[in-house]
Structure prediction request, 909 residues.
Amino acid sequence: MSKSLNKHWHHLPEAEVTDLLDVNPDTGLDSLEIEERRDTYGANTLTIKKGKGPVLRFLLQFHQALIYILLLAIGIKASLGGWVDAGVILGVVVLNAIIGFVQESKALTALSALSHALTTEAVVLRSGEKQRINARDLVPGDIVLLQSGDKVSGDMRLLHSRELQVDESALTGESIPVSKAVSEQAHDTLLADRANMLYSSTLVTYGTGRGVVIATGDDTEIGRISKLITSAEILETPLTRKITKFSHILLFVILGLALLTFAVGLWHGDSWENLFMASVALSVAMIPEGLPAVMTITLAIGVSRMAKRNAIIRHLPAVETLGSTTVICSDKTGTLTRNEMTVQQLWAGNETFQASGIGYAPEGSISIEQSGEAIDVKVKPALLELLQAGLLCNDSILKQSAQGWVIEGDPTEGALLVSAAKAGLEVESLSTQMPRQDAIPFESQHQYMATLHSDTASGTAIIYLKGSVESLLERCNRLMATNSDFDQTLVISQAEAMAQQGLRVLAFAKLIVPNEEQQINHDTVANGLEFIGLQGMIDPPREEAIRAIAACRSAGIRVKMITGDHPATAVAIAHKMGLIASTSKEDSMPALNGRDLEALFDADLIKAASTTTVFARVSPEQKLRLVEALQAQGEVVAMTGDGVNDAPAVRKADIGVAMGITGTEVAKEAADMVLTDDNFATIEAAVEEGRGVLDNLIKFLSFILATNFGEGLVIIAAVLMSEILPVLPVHALWINMTAAIFLGLTLAFEPGEPGIMAKPPRPPAMPILKGELIFRIFLVGSMLLAGAFGLFEYALHQGASIEQARTIAVNVFAVGESFYLLNCRSLRLSMFRLGLFSNLWVWIGILCMAAAQWAFTYLPVMNKLFHTAPISLNDWIPIFTVGLIIHLVIAFDKRIRLWLDQRGDKKPA
Prediction:
């Protein structure tokens, strides 16, 4: 047998399949063939791509421009004897390296989860005997016997089926178990519609079957997905990209200014020793040592806040990415919808009725569609019979648990139990009155289920059928509760009207038989039945998800639905959720399915990905292509998923989101965030928190860089004017560390500002600091320069010592930063608008800074360590005046910019 098994197996008859695989379907393979094929195809396991070793991956975490700056700072501080500060910064660098190392390991973990998904057992037919073997020993050509509860261990072509149903949701996204059949399929049948194929890692939920293995290990569909996960690159987050660019710029600016300062000093005739000290002080002053630590802590605080809102963040940068998200690609079932099939429309006696209530809770009523008037179903015999048929022709159980009402069995049957309960019908009493005598289970080739009941009240027996409209109509010759001739077109048109609303339609019929009838078969119900009516059901949208989608649209975030369901159902749900606003005829199918996407070239796909809202019946490769197409347009993409088929796209997305309840381990390991409630509204809440985190990071940058810039200006000014340095390197270290820890860090606790979800997302190409913030940094830095240098020179002029003058200069920075911090709480709003005490950490931080500066100024041990000296109370008056001026100037600047923004919003478009 050839090693190449790339065949369209679903298109071939069973006999041709077994001939190509060189196997007898009645006896299976013999031991010699098994050994030969095991040597040819290998074990039925997934190959994990060998990557870089853990040591190399850890060392590569230090290969970043910002880390180089910090390593330079460590060297400088160690050379100056600042071992404590050097140790702190080294700890920050190592911590960030560990975090990055853990993040990079997620691909290997995801592949490991995939590999574990195959470790199971299978029952095979070998040499004419049944054997239970480890699934890793399966080979192409093995005949496998399957029953309810079995995990499919390899890709198979079905040879025999009896009522076989398979849960393929993890692979295809199909929300309900799929019925399987043996007959060959059309050549271009999509994977999700191939009824004669079974795929590795799916689960048999009902019936029995026999299949022949056509692919194992890496050659299976799940193996192909494994390769996609391996090939999907992990993108940097928007913030890490911008921080990297910012770090490169900062590195060159610092080195450039240090060299320029050194050169200018030489030109002025200063000594090499003094110029070296000045260059070192400048470099230390302008390096934001606290940036990595504050970034990590700010993101960690965001993680904690999101956890309280049912979003578990697995990788820290995902917090910030959420705040930059421009497109959310969401699965439908369970995320946008409740994953609880619900009957919404009924048709009986040529009348249409509505069922209120959603989900499995038996709460709601039945009403006439036209008037909306609730009715007692007993006055509508056909409607009562319809509900009774759905209740009795049913193998599922509705029960109440600690988590609420749940269904044991098929969700479609569960919906029928709930609709009957809403009308007051009780399973126990009705089953006692009409006990079941026999049943014909659902089979895909017949498309119906039938049950026989003896009616103790009337002394007769009755057969109820439920199934597809087509299968029941051909068996019926009359319509219940109508006197006119049976018109099949009337039923078909009603069923089509329901289907156009995205409802899954089930038909019901009955046949009265003699009471002595104890058994039924397909011949018993071949004809002469009375058609009862239709029940239309749908997995209803979550109300909170509808509100969340509206909030996303207000925030400028586009939401797209990617689902394994049929396009008509997906579009109907999209209309109800507000994803598709228009209901015009030309926009009646604003969806693309997998076959449509397969025919598109990359350029056309990029356009389609942007303009289309609903994608149905898509394969794993197509999900991955959709994410890449959106990213090619510069979008920051969040992708939700719960199945194995979602993992490549989830990993490729800027922010991958997995479902905590229904999600597979593979999807969770590939994701950046896991939703503990599987609810789209949680994504919107996480985006809101992410925006708050991003805002806080930008606030911190605008705060700390103004400090660094001010220090740098003071040192440059001293060199240019051939003056004594007002700030020594140890002073710069003190200012930077205390400003970051006591003041800047408090901004991480700042709650989200009002209207945070009313703004569009930050464009991905927008630099981390816009022009107005750069202006503000220059403005504050200039005021710190004027205050620190001016008071330093004034103190010397008044006869103060060098140590006292430098103490005054350092305190100008401490006080100025504290006043500026109050303005950094919002880039637009005043602290009074936010609430003076809405972030108590700010005031605690200012008190800690005051205590630190008191110790810095007045404790003898600090005076000795930092070359400072106590200053008088009168010296504090001009220091606080400088701080107050900084606060008032920035407050005025913010007020003017807010007024300009509001004026711009009022202009007509």
In short: The first helix runs from residue 14 to 20. The CA atoms of residues 339 and 646 lie 18 Å apart.
